[in-house]
Amino acid sequence: MSAQHAFHDFGALHFGRRAELDPEEARRVREAVRDSGVRELYVLAHGAHNDDTVSEAADDAFCAILAEAWGDASREVGLLTVRWPSLCFRDEGIWGHAEDETTREEEARPGISAAMGDDLRRRLPDSENLLSEIIGLLNERPVHDGAFDDLGSALRRLAENPLQDPLTEFGADTEGEILPQADPLMLFEDTKTMCCEFAGVLDDLVESGDEDPGEPARHETGTGDPDSPVSEEGTLPEIRVAGHRPAKPLSDRVSRVGTAAGGGPVGQDRDRQEYAEVWRGAHELFRQVVRHVLRRRAGAVGEAGLGPFLADLTDSSGTRIHLVGHGLGGRLAGFALRGLESGGQDTGRLASLTLLQAEMSHFAFADSLPQQVSGHGALWGLRRRIEGPLVCTFSHLDTHLGVMYPLSAQMMGDTAEMATMSRKWGALGFDGIQGVDGPPDITVDAASERDLGEMSYTNVDSSSLFRSQRIPVGGHHDVLHPDLGRLLRQVAESGKDKDTEDVEPGTDIE
Fold first, then answer.
1. DSSP assignment, residue 349?
2. HSE-up of 65 (CA within 13 Å, CB side)?
3. Helices 128-140 and 146-159: crossing angle, nearest 10°?
4. Which helix (H) or strand (E) holds 356?
5. Which residues contact 262 (CB under 8 A, 6 or more apart)?
6. Burial of 169 (C-beta count, 10 Å sphere; 0-12/13-18/19+)
7. For residues 317-353, b (16+ Cβ closer than 10 Å) or e, as one string?
8. How many Cβ atoms from other residues are within 10 Å of residue 61's Cβ?
9. Residue 461, helix vs strand vs coil
10. Exposure of 114 by Cβ count < 10 A (0-12 exposed, 13-18 middle, 19+ buried)?
11. C-alpha angle 423-234-266 in degrees, rounded to nearest 5
């Protein structure tokens, strides 16, 4: 990390694919933090780890906005980053990647560049032969239907996991349903159908590029700003909570009820699609299958790796720890709460948690699922592991989480016909924490006037900031604004004076 920043630099903590952590490295970090005198420590998890250059560029970029926000006070502030085997596709405009390089990657679609192929083989080393097969198909783009059967078979093998493998339990963000769901529909639906589906979504995003769907909508239940538009997409009054969403969806494909296999435009149009368009959708399907594999990995690294480490760190250092997770790193950070919990009720607690465009279900913290008769979020009840604020940023212009995530997260066997796809399978980073009592929805500007430590959950509408027009990810990576640095400082300072002495272990902070 660049030495120009005033932050105390604790470097990176490295985890393997199954949460392996070098005990000597963990010991060195704990001792460094303990001996530094740092009072506020940010622990940052993100998913841009294609190689060391990309990782370091992302770390430096986050560090820069934090250093600017803290100014002269940064002497008592430190940063520790989490390195884990993850990646982002190079056409997404990731850190450490010049604009002309990103443009070349975009122009190569639906093919996969040599650099991207190297990234994939580096992060998925057990699947080198499968990756070669998939990349070969995307680069050659055969003009016959059998090629899509071959692609689907390879994608299923890329994502498959034996039931007895511990990684399997990290595939879902909810628990306790009558029928547990862990296999995404996109892997088991007809492959050409799914390719057409994703191609259609890309077209929808291009067509909506001149419009602004980012304004939060008021729901029929009366929540939110009474002057904002009412959603016309059939919002259902739910038992306790109706979270915000755009008045106009980013794509009609996430507004329908049921699965892609249920008919509609996909079934009617798929034979009329040109092969070039279908292969364009195949590239996006491949991206989403890779994201599914990495989401599962993020859960394992968070719960089995980072969570136990943070429990030891809080108990040994006395430093206030502020966990920040972006994108895939948001899921890693969320599951780290489960790792803290596994250490027992007397283990340390985080000073704060900020989920920054988190790639995780918006029902992750829910104690019940509005569209199910049973079940709850995978992080239900774990708010008690955070002494101060729990903040979730969201943007209605994060098209990766607003459109691609619901399509890729929808599970096989889904029969919940009472909720649209985006409602049931929506992401934290698109419309915030849902399914819990009373999380206020505030803008980034309004957040500066609030004591974030007084609220159990806070959803921060960041649509005014995180709003890139890049397709297909939109504003997902467009997060490094000075306002974000100020928000992260405010999160840390809001929790300083929060009185938690009377809070009994096992209860949520109100």
1. -
2. 17
3. 150
4. strand 352-356
5. 256
6. middle
7. bebbbbbbbbbbbbbbbbbbbbbbbebeeebbbbbbb
8. 17
9. strand
10. exposed
11. 70
| Cross-strand bridge partners of residue 218 | 230
Nearest 5°: phi and psi at 237? Answer: -65, 125
Q: What stretches of 173-317 show up as alpha helix (H) in DSSP?
A: 191-207, 265-269, 275-300, 307-317
Crossing angle for the helix pair 275-300 and 191-207, to the nearest 10 degrees: 100
The strand pairing partners of 246, in sequence order, are 216
- Contact status, residue 409 vs residue 363, Cβ threshold 8 Å: no
Rounded CA-CA distance 285/279 in Å is 9
15 phi and psi, to 5 degrees? -115, 150
Residues 138, 282 contacting (CB under 8 angstroms) = yes
User: How far is 351 from 388, CA to CA, in rounded Å?
Assistant: 5
- The Cα 413–Cα 390 span in angstroms is 33
Give me the amino acid identity at 337.
L
What residues pair up with 350 in beta bridges, in sequence order? 386
On whether the CB atoms of residues 199 and 408 are closer than 8 A, the answer is: no
Query: Please, which residues have CB within 8 angstroms of residue 304's CB and are 6 or more apart in sequence?
Result: 18, 19, 166, 339
pLDDT digit string (tens) for the chain, length 510 residues: 444 456 788 999 999 999 999 999 999 999 999 999 899 999 999 999 999 999 999 999 999 999 999 998 888 999 999 999 999 999 999 988 888 999 999 999 999 999 999 999 999 999 999 999 999 999 999 999 999 999 999 999 999 988 788 888 888 888 866 556 568 889 999 999 999 999 999 999 988 765 554 454 433 333 445 554 544 443 444 434 445 566 567 787 787 655 554 444 444 454 555 899 999 999 999 999 999 999 999 999 999 999 999 999 988 888 999 999 999 999 999 999 999 987 666 667 999 999 999 999 999 999 887 666 678 899 999 999 999 999 999 999 999 999 999 999 887 766 555 456 677 888 999 999 998 877 767 899 898 888 898 889 999 999 999 988 899 999 999 999 999 999 999 999 986 765 444 444 334 443
Report the alpha-carbon distance of residue 487 to residue 485 in Å, rounded: 5
Alpha helices in 190-263 (DSSP H): 191-207
Name the residue among 420, 219, 405, 426 with its Cα closest to residue 295: 405
Q: Can you say whether residue 324 is alpha, beta or left, with left for phi > 0 and alpha for psi between -120 and 50 degrees?
A: beta
